Amino acid sequence: MLSGSFAPDVDRLLGMDDDIAIYLSKAAESLQSAESEFAHGRYISCANRCYYACFQAAIAALLREGVHASSGYWGHDFVQAQFVGQLINRRKQYSGDLRRVLSDNQSLRDQVDYEAKLVKQSQANRALARARAFVNAVQHRKEANR
């Protein structure tokens, strides 16, 4: 089940920029949903929520570092490219171990959302481990920058 470290602490988030706090809260809720879906054997839904937990955490990380979507719309390709290009490669804010998390979790989500495929327990478990690591890294980076 979900440890307390992933649950959103609203009082702590209130001191942050509202948009960052909202995306961190969304990421935490998506991760909690992924945990619940996995525990109940709903691996397709788990894969979906794993991707969105990472996507929402990545947006929070980008906002924290001053990167904004020029159109106001956070496209999936833009978020992945900016997170990897700016926050991992250029600014070295996050470990290179996170480089493929967004793309790997999106690939799994896309396969099961748009193709006649199912998610195996082992695939969901790996996606969940990646999502936990990603969200945890963003949460801890946020706390270090406070």
Total count of strands: 0
Gyration radius, to the nearest Å?
A: 15 Å
- Overall shape: globular
Distance between the termini: 28 Å
Q: What is the CATH third-level topology name?
A: Four Helix Bundle (Hemerythrin (Met), subunit A)
Please identify the top-level CATH class.
Mainly Alpha
Structural class: mainly alpha
User: What share of the residues does DSSP label as strand, in percent?
Assistant: under 5%
Give a short account of the largest sheet.
Answer: none
CATH superfamily label:
Nucleotidyltransferases  domain 2
**What value does the average pLDDT take?**
90
Q: What kind of assembly state do the chains in view correspond to?
A: single chain
State the CATH architecture.
Up-down Bundle
Outline:
With 146 residues, the protein is mostly helical.
Describe the protein's architecture and organization.
By secondary structure, the protein is mostly helical. It has a single domain, classed as Nucleotidyltransferases  domain 2 (Four Helix Bundle (Hemerythrin (Met), subunit A), Up-down Bundle), CATH 1.20.120. It is built from 6 helices and no strands. Helix 2 runs antiparallel to helix 3 (43-64), helix 2 runs antiparallel to helix 6 and helix 5 crosses helix 6 (121-144). The model has no long low-confidence stretch (mean pLDDT 90).
